[in-house]
Amino acid sequence: MSYTAPTKAVPLAPLLLLAALAQPAQAATTLTLQPDEAASQDVFVYEFAIPGAFGIATAARVTNLDSQTLNNLSPLPAVPFGNFLGSSNTVPLIGAQGESRAHDTRSLLRFDPGGLGIAAGQVVSASLRLFALPGLPPFDNPTPAQAITTDLHRVTESWSETGVTWETQPAVSGPVTSVTQDGVNQWVSFDVTALVRDWLADPAGNFGVELRQPDIVIAASGKPLASLYASSAWADAGLRPMLEISAIPEPSTAALLAGGLGLFGWVGRRRQQA
Question: Is 91 helix (H, G, I), strand (E, B) or coil?
Answer without folding.
Answer: coil
